[in-house]
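pipeline/complex-builder :: batch 7 item 3
reading input block
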Amino acid sequence: ELKVEQNPLFLSMQEGKNYTIYCNYSTTSDRLYWYRQDPGKSLESLFVLLSNGAVKQEGRLMASLDTKARLSTLHITAAVHDLSATYFCAVVGLNTGNQFYFGTGTSLTVIP
Amino acid sequence: GAVVSQHPSWVICKSGTSVKIECRSLDFQATTMFWYRQFPKQSLMLMATSNEGSKATYEQGVEKDKFLINHASLTLSTLTVTSAHPEDSSFYICSAREAGRSYEQYFGPGTRLTVT
């Protein structure tokens, strides 16, 4: 079974600071997704990374994918309070019928 | 585009009753729909995958007789929780995959089920 781990599980950071969330997965994959979830809400798609070395940026968030290391990162630049949410990565394995495997989630709190 | 709706958004039911949750793709045809369950402060766990016109495939540990899934059309899938118990209380999220676009799933807004 494909396992997806995120680090850290909980993150409290001050506004204006930078930080990185890590997503490690256990088997070969060529697709990785990042989602944001606000309390009581469903998932909001942030990024889709489709190839090794892919890097995407939107506002203060930047995501990258290293398929050889089986690692994706979500980098937060100059955090603001509005970024407080839970962030999930999800991986699709090569031979899993396009099934999504979700990471453990990272609960981010940005403190003013 | 690519909007998925769920109904109801929240439901409270008594123990022993059944409740049906609908998942609809509003502006595309969904050949495959997925049902997830999420407990508070936890990740999403895939319950089952349903393809239009065929039986759903359930993940290990998910009781198919308790969680009935029907995907009768290309825009509608339903999840029926039968003989609900308080431990079935959870946030249920569906997602849909559009025909010909296998790399993306579009998530519904979720249904909060509380069993008393």
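note: Residues 41 and 109 of chain A are 16 Å apart (CA to CA).
queue -> next item
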